[in-house]
């Protein structure tokens, strides 16, 4: 699938690895490849299994919100997930060329996602 560029009049952080573009939910890849690699952040709210995970989720969402404040972001659709909503899988680039999800990972707000790999955000060593 060829990548498609997208413009949003409204772009907001839903959680640390999901954005809403004009009402459409989209999943960040963090520079990854659909169904091969991407990023993962802790689940937010009632989806979190421990208090630590809830706190980390709010911090990741806050950092993503900051990164989305820049004007001129470029959103590249790389595919669609397998959920009933068929969310677009996207990379979001800042004007300087850095990818937003990759920045979250480099800064410690996200981890690598791979198929069949679980990130255990509630572990004491996290």
Question: What do these coordinates show?
Answer:
The chain has helices at 51-67, 100-106, and strands at residues 4-6, 11-15, 18-21, 24-28, 38-40, 74-80, 88-93, 111-113. It has 126 residues and is α+β, with helices and mostly antiparallel strands. The chain has a single domain (4-113), classed as OB fold (Dihydrolipoamide Acetyltransferase, E2P) (Beta Barrel). The protein has a 6-stranded mixed beta sheet with strand order 1-6-7-4-3-2. The chain has a two-stranded antiparallel ribbon with strand order 5-8. It is globular. The mean pLDDT is 90.
Question: Can you summarize this structure?
Answer:
With 126 residues, this protein is of the alpha+beta class. It has helices at residues 51-67, 100-106, and strands at residues 4-6, 11-15, 18-21, 24-28, 38-40, 74-80, 88-93, 111-113. It has one domain (4-113): OB fold (Dihydrolipoamide Acetyltransferase, E2P), CATH 2.40.50.
Helix-strand blueprint:
Elements: E1 4-6, E2 11-15, E3 18-21, E4 24-28, E5 38-40, H1 51-67, E6 74-80, E7 88-93, H2 100-106, E8 111-113
Compressed to H and E, one letter per element, the order equals EEEEEHEEHE
What would you say the CATH architecture is? Beta Barrel
**What is the multimeric organization of the chains shown?**
single chain
Q: Report the top-level CATH class.
A: Mainly Beta
Characterize the main sheet.
Answer: 6 strands, mixed
Order of strands, widest sheet: 1-6-7-4-3-2
* Domains, number: 1
Estimate the helix proportion, in percent: 10-25%
Low-confidence stretches: none
Rg, please?
14 Å
The number of strands is: 8
- What is the overall silhouette? globular
């Amino acid at each position: 699938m060829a990548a498609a560029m997208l413009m949003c009049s409204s772009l907001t952080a839903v959680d640390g690895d999901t954005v809403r573009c004009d009402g459409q939910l989209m999943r960040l890849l963090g520079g990854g490849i659909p169904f091969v690699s991407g990023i993962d952040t802790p689940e937010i709210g009632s989806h979190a299994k421990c208090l630590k995970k809830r706190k980390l989720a709010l911090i990741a969402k806050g950092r993503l919100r900051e990164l989305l404040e820049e004007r001129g972001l470029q959103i590249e659709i790389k595919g669609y997930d397998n959920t009933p909503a068929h969310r677009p899988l996207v990379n979001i680039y800042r004007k300087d060329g850095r990818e937003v999800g990759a920045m979250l990972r480099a800064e410690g707000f996200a981890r690598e996602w791979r198929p069949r790999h679980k990130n255990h955000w509630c572990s004491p060593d996290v």
